[in-house]
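[recover] target loaded
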C-alpha cells in the first residue's frame, strides 16, 4: 500500500537560508503547487492525505474544499509552519474541523519536530506521522525507531518510510535528487519489507522555486516545478503498473488497527 501525503503550508523555506519572501508570496507558491498536485491525483484516480496549517487552509478554502470533495483526507500541520506552541495542537485540529466540517484525526509536526505524545493525545488525535526513523544531521536522530506503526501511549505513531538498508529516507529530497529508477527500487524493497510506503511531499515542489532571491541551495529545488510534475506522474503510473494500491493515511491505519487487535 502506498500512502502519499503532502504538507501544505506557507512556503517559508527561503527564510531558513536568509532569503526573501513575503507571506503573500509564500501562500501563492504553495497554492500553485497544490493545484498541480490535485490535478495529478485526479487524473490518476488516487487518494492522498493533506496535512495543512491553519494559515494555509484559511487562505485557500476553495482548494481545501476541493480536496475533501475529491475524497482526500485533511489532517493537521498545526497552526503556523514556523511558530509552534503546544496549544496549537488542539486549536488547529478544532479550527480545521470547524472550517471544513470534517473529522481531523491525524497530525504531522512541521519539519518533523518532536512533540509531547500526552499533548497529542489530549488534543484528540488518533495518529501522529511526525517521525522519520533515520538520522538526519541537524534535525533528528531516530535511527533506532521502528519502521512500522507502533503505539506510543494513546497515539499511533506512523513513521515515514526509509530504505531497508542504511535507512535512507524516502522523503521529498530523495525523490528530487536520486535517479528515479533508484528511488523506485528502494521503494519496492521498502514495500516488500513493511507492506506500505509512507512518503511525503510539499506543494512548493510542484511550483517554480528557483528565484535567486530565495537563496535556496540547489539540492532543495533540483527537479522541481514541471520536472517534478512529470517525475511524480511517472512514479504513480509505475506504481499502478506494478499493482500497488493507494490509500489515505487514516483509512490505512484504521484497517491496520483492526487487523492488529489482540
Amino acid at each position: 500500500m502506498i500512502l502519499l501525503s503532502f504538507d501544505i503550508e506557507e512556503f517559508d523555506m527561503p527564510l531558513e537560508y536568509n532569503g526573501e519572501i513575503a507571506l503573500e508570496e509564500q501562500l501563492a507558491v504553495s497554492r500553485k503547487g497544490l493545484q498541480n498536485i490535485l490535478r495529478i491525483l485526479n487524473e490518476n484516480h488516487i487518494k492522498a492525505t493533506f496535512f495543512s496549517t491553519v494559515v494555509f487552509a484559511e487562505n485557500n478554502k476553495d482548494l481545501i474544499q476541493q480536496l475533501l470533495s475529491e475524497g482526500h483526507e485533511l489532517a493537521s500541520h498545526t497552526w503556523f509552519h514556523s511558530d509552534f506552541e503546544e496549544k496549537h495542537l488542539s486549536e488547529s485540529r478544532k479550527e480545521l474541523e470547524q472550517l471544513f466540517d470534517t473529522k481531523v484525526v491525524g497530525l504531522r509536526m512541521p519539519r518533523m519536530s518532536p512533540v509531547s505524545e500526552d499533548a497529542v493525545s489530549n488534543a484528540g488525535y488518533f495518529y501522529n506521522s511526525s517521525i522519520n526513523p533515520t538520522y538526519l544531521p541537524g534535525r533528528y536522530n531516530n535511527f533506532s525507531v521502528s519502521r512500522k506503526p507502533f503505539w506510543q501511549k494513546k497515539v499511533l505513531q506512523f513513521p515515514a518510510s526509509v530504505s531497508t538498508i542504511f535507512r535512507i529516507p524516502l522523503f521529498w529530497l530523495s525523490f528530487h535528487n536520486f535517479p528515479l529508477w533508484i528511488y523506485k527500487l528502494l521503494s519496492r524493497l521498502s514495500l516488500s519489507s513493511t507492506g506500505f510506503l509512507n512518503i511525503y511531499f510539499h506543494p512548493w515542489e510542484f511550483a517554480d522555486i528557483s528565484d535567486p532571491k530565495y537563496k535556496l541551495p540547489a539540492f532543495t529545488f533540483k527537479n522541481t516545478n514541471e520536472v517534478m510534475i512529470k517525475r511524480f506522474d511517472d512514479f504513480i503510473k509505475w506504481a499502478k503498473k506494478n499493482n500497488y494500491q493507494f490509500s489515505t493515511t487514516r483509512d490505512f491505519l484504521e484497517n491496520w488497527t483492526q487487523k492488529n487487535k489482540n
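[recover] notes: The mean pLDDT is 93.
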